[in-house]
UniProtKB/TrEMBL annotation, chain A:
PANTHER family recorded: CARBOHYDRATE TRANSPORT ATP-BINDING PROTEIN MG119-RELATED, D-ALLOSE IMPORT ATP-BINDING PROTEIN ALSA-RELATED
Span of domain ABC transporter: 39-277, 305-546
SUPFAM superfamilies cross-referenced by the UniProt entry: P-loop containing nucleoside triphosphate hydrolases (SSF52540)
Name by which UniProt lists this protein: ABC-type sugar transport system ATPase subunit
Keywords recorded for this protein, A-Z: ATP-binding, Cell membrane, Membrane, Nucleotide-binding, Repeat, Sugar transport, Translocase, Transport
Alphabetized Gene3D superfamilies for the sequence: P-loop containing nucleotide triphosphate hydrolases
Presence of keyword Ribonucleoprotein: no
Taxonomic superkingdom: Bacteria
An example molecular function term from Gene Ontology annotations: ATP hydrolysis activity
InterPro entries assigned to the protein according to its UniProt record, in alphabetical order: AAA+_ATPase (IPR003593), ABC_carbohydrate_import_ATPase (IPR050107), ABC_transporter-like_ATP-bd (IPR003439), ABC_transporter-like_CS (IPR017871), P-loop_NTPase (IPR027417)
Species assigned in the record: Conexibacter arvalis
TrEMBL record, chain B:
Protein name: Ribose/xylose/arabinose/galactoside ABC-type transport system permease subunit
Keyword vocabulary terms for this entry: Cell membrane, Membrane, Transmembrane, Transmembrane helix
InterPro entries linked: ABC_transp_permease (IPR001851)
Regions crossing the membrane: 51-84, 96-116, 122-142, 163-183, 215-233, 254-282
Length: 546, 347
């Protein structure tokens, strides 16, 4: 801790002198090959009403062609800082220095002119247009004076860009048909086609499977070799340690540690993120959250004899799912593994009645007749969708409204909301999930990504659902909160709930589940007990049929 | 009771502050320059003059919050008017006819617009444009393009009378506002409407009855049209065979001026009231000043756009960022005329 903090402080001191004298190369010249950092964000401050999102954040890219990791707990200000850098947010104070010259970033377009491009987390692509069209969106297709757009040349250039990222798709393919990670690549290609020199990726891996993450990393490394820098946000420590050359850690809107990646290890990063005191507690807690393997394996065998809480027989959907049979016992946590497109999300949707499907779904022995979300909820099923912004939350509404939405769905529609019972429910959810919000009345859109995720999950805990279908339950959630959510889910299971959890992170499933069911092309290809399951085993089955 | 309450009330106006400020300015302007503007009779005329718009706009507010628009509201007013005249003509007691008329409006809104949009998932624009057109035709057919005179005293009281010295339409305005505020703030229905408008998918996945909510929303708009029909018929003592569909658009404009979002999920009836008053004050003040009433339309249109623009500017953090963002959006769509898209897929 002290070492990293010292390095952060000395770095900022050096930059301050550099700025004060106006000379580009000062003390830092010794370490950085090109003298002053390529990019420096210094003492950035930003307030949203009473919330200090940034209170003196600092981030420096030491040289062109560097991969810079950015990490911090949920709500520590990462997205806000990158919003400032990409021209989407105006800081209250602070300097941005690019190649030794102070610049003003008043809009995303201005940032782009300086070669700074943000690859948004929600893909901003036109799904019906081809890859080439999307890459050159904005009037930059190759044109000929008489014939208009030269499609052959445009496609060729798009193919070239894709190839440089390690992708061999046909540039005429509509983007909507691509897998999510490939879509992300198209966005990166677009940024590159605009001569971006600094690429910003805010949690690019949160929706990707392990394979796709590797493909993305390969692309980022290629870019590094070409002198394009990448700023990369992730809550997954191993990823950062593997990919980043240097790291900045934010805590409560302040830079608390920064330096070359060699100065860090996982413990030190966590400690910097949460502060030394909390780190100690978090370590103790995450230890408790890991599944006691022997005990749960025993409970699984005993419960399989009784009626399962959730029983699927022949659940199918044309082109998506084929004859899925699956049992989840009360008190059991079953994981769904598989590559993106294997049908994990579709299976959860089908059970919840959000996707038309054939076959039977039984809950505690009685078949679910009506196949729609309301009927499923009435039967005690809860469903956390993978996309919290559009499916999991009503963003404009308050934290309280969103938390109480499910629990109060059957109250008389002309009755007054916000009664004492409802407030207690909301208060309890906020407390157990440790949701950080200005107030329960704050719009959920003003929460940081991880806290939004907790609200999306919290509504089902508030509704006391007995069967929980969770699609990427910890997407975008920081390490400490992730351990907490795992602990909560284990507690829910210990309390008799049945959990079916889909995750693109095998590691998460291994830590959380009693059993892992592997899907490939909409079919169950393996069911592994906790002892049998391992990263390799899951990958073998998941890949074998893909 | 201390300064906190006014401050909170002021903070709650942020969505419709432009129209609030302009309204205050207009009030001052007309109050100072136009003799008689602040007279009790004139203020009464001002309010009764916008009573139909007021009632329609309150219903329309919920439609906009639910991410829709009801273009057929004015057509339902006319249709309910003919219904009222026919019911009275058929010998229904006025009290019963009045209740039936309001319900009839609600039924048309819920049964036609609500079901088609909610149950079948058709676009609100197509559905209400279609029902507006069809209902306009039905009004002409049903009334045989003849004015249907209504002589019932009760209706004249509704349109022209007064209770405790205050015009009946003003009482109706107050009553509908109270009910609308109650729905918005004090019922789960109100929450549902915001949730459905904010994200229909998210609402559905949370177990909210999205179809029923949509049906109810268009039903509310229809009920308001039914109430407006009572005032309309009462005022002129007849049901007109003419449909002024522009009133529905004017109501939508008042709602937008009042800060409710066309995208749904945000806004409220509090702002709508000021949107309506703005139109009313402008109309009234200009007519006292002897300015042609068409200017009211010009100014309303311009202010509507300016209010939205002002909102965008403050959201973007200045004029230049707004222009820059707009340019970026334009640039992003520059390659997308339909012919090139076709070429693209064949390439
Ligand atoms: N538009 C806004 N209005 C009000 N508060 C905001 C707004 N945007 C962000 N905040 C607040 O600023 C703080 C920082 O948020 P930010 O999104 O930058 O966090 P983050 O580090 O990206 O977190 P996460 O890992 O959860 O994505 C949070 O407390 C958040 O609630
Ligand atoms: Mg974030």
């Amino acid at each position: 801790m002290s070492a990293t903090e010292a390095s952060a402080r000395s770095a900022s001191g050096a930059a301050a002198t550099g700025a004060a004298t106006g000379a580009a190369a000062t003390a830092r010249g010794a370490e950085a090959p090109h003298g002053a950092p390529q990019l420096l964000l210094d003492d950035v401050r930003k307030r949203f009403g009473g919330v200090h999102a940034l209170r003196g954040a600092r981030l420096a890219l030491t040289r062109p062609g560097v991969v810079h990791g950015l990490i911090g707990a949920n709500g520590s200000g990462k997205s806000t800082l990158l919003g400032v850098l990409s021209g989407q947010q105006r800081p209250d104070a602070g300097r941005i220095v690019l190649d030794g010259a102070e610049i003003a970033l008043t809009s995303p377009l201005a940032a782009l002119r300086h070669g700074i491009a943000m690859v948004s987390q929600e893909t901003a692509l036109a799904p019906d247009l081809s890859i080439a069209e999307n890459v050159f969106l904005g009037g930059r297709l190759v044109r000929r004076r008489v014939r208009g757009i030269d499609w052959r040349a445009s496609n060729a250039r798009a193919a070239e860009l894709l190839a440089s990222l390690g992708l061999d798709e046909d540039p005429a393919t509509p983007v909507g048909r691509l897998r999510p990670d490939r879509q992300q690549m198209v966005e990166i290609a677009r940024a590159l086609s605009q001569e971006a020199r600094i690429l910003i990726l805010d949690e690019p891996t949160s929706s990707l499977g392990d394979d796709e993450v590797q493909a993305l990393f390969a692309a980022v490394r290629r870019l590094r070799a070409r002198g394009v820098s990448t700023i990369f946000v992730s809550h997954r420590l191993p990823e950062l340690l593997a990919l980043a050359d240097e790291l900045t850690v934010l805590r409560d809107g302040e830079t608390v540690a920064a330096g070359p990646i060699a100065d860090f290890d996982a413990d030190r990063i966590v400690e910097a993120m949460v502060g030394p005191a909390v780190a100690e507690r978090a370590r103790a807690r995450s230890g408790a959250a890991t599944r006691p393997a022997a005990a749960t394996a025993g409970s699984t065998t005993t419960t399989t004899a009784s009626v399962p809480a959730l029983r699927l027989r022949g659940v199918g959907a044309p082109g998506l799912l084929r004859e899925v049979d699956l049992d989840v016992a009360a008190g059991e946590v079953v994981g769904l593994a598989g590559v993106v497109g294997a049908g994990r999300s579709e299976l959860l949707e089908a059970i919840f009645g959000a996707l038309p499907a054939s076959g039977t779904v039984e809950l505690h022995g009685s078949a679910l007749r009506a196949r729609d979300p309301r009927a499923a909820i009435a039967a005690g099923v809860g469903y956390l969708p993978p996309d919290r912004k559009h499916q999991g939350l009503v963003l404009q509404r308050s934290v309280a409204d969103n938390l109480a939405m499910v629990a109060t769905r059957d109250a008389g529609r002309l009755r007054a909301p916000g009664g004492a019972a409802e407030r207690a429910l909301v208060g309890e959810a906020i407390a157990t999930l440790r949701i950080v919000a200005a107030s329960p009345a704050a719009p959920v859109s003003t929460l940081s990504g991880g806290n939004q995720q907790k609200v999306a999950l919290g509504r089902w805990i508030a509704a006391r659902s007995r069967v929980l279908l969770l699609d990427e339950p910890t997407r975008g959630v920081d390490v400490a909160a992730k351990a907490e959510i795992h602990r909560l889910l284990r507690a829910a299971a210990a309390d008799g709930a049945a959990l079916l959890v889909s995750s693109s992170e095998t590691e998460e499933l291994l830590a959380l589940c009693d059993r892992i069911v592997v899907l490939a092309r909409g079919e169950v290809v393996a069911s592994l007990t906790a002892e049998e399951a391992s990263e390799e085993a899951v990958a073998r089955f998941a890949g074998g049929h893909a | 009771m201390t300064a906190a309450l006014p401050r909170r009330a002021w903070a709650a106006t942020h969505r419709f502050r432009p129209v609030l400020l302009i309204l205050a300015a207009l009030f001052l302007l007309f109050g100072v320059t136009q003799e008689g503007f602040l007279d009790a009779t004139n203020l009464r005329n001002l309010l009764t003059g916008v009573s139909i718009l007021w009632v329609l706009a309150l219903g329309m507010t919920f439609v906009l919050i639910s991410a829709g628009v009801d273009l057929s509201a004015a057509a339902i007013v006319a249709l309910a008017g003919v219904f009222l005249a026919r019911a009275l003509g058929a010998g229904a007691p006025p009290g019963v006819a009045i209740v039936l008329t309001v319900l009839f409006g609600g039924l048309v809104g819920a049964g036609v617009n609500g079901l088609l949009i909610g149950r079948l998932g058709l676009s609100f624009f197509v559905v209400t444009l279609g029902s507006m057109t069809a209902l306009t035709g039905i009004v002409s057919l049903w009334s045989q393009t003849e004015t249907q005179f209504v002589t019932a005293r009760l209706l004249r009281e509704i349109g022209m009378g007064s209770i405790l010295g205050i015009a009946t339409p003003i009482w109706i305005m107050a009553a509908t506002l109270l009910v609308a505020l109650w729905i918005q703030h004090r019922t789960y229905l109100g929450r549902d409407i915001y949730a459905v408008g904010g994200s229909r998918v998210a609402a559905r996945l949370a177990g909210i009855r999205t179809v029923r909510t949509t049906v109810v929303v268009y039903g509310i708009s229809g009920l308001c049209a039914g109430i407006a029909a009572l005032i309309a018929v009462g005022r002129i003592g007849a049901a007109s065979p003419q449909v002024d569909n522009a009133i529905a658009l004017q109501a939508a404009a008042a709602v937008l001026l009042g800060g409710t979002s066309l995208m749904g999920g945000a806004g409220g009836v509090g702002g709508t009231v000021f949107g309506v008053l703005f139109i009313g004050v402008l109309q009234n003040g200009l007519s006292i000043a002897g300015v042609q009433s068409f200017w009211q339309q010009v100014v309303t249109g311009v202010i509507l756009v300016l209010a939205v623009l002002g909102d965008r500017i403050s959201a973007a953090g200045g004029v230049r960022p707004l222009i820059a963002a707009a340019r970026a959006r334009l640039a992003a769509t520059a390659d997308r005329p339909s012919d090139t898209a076709n070429e693209g897929s064949s390439a």
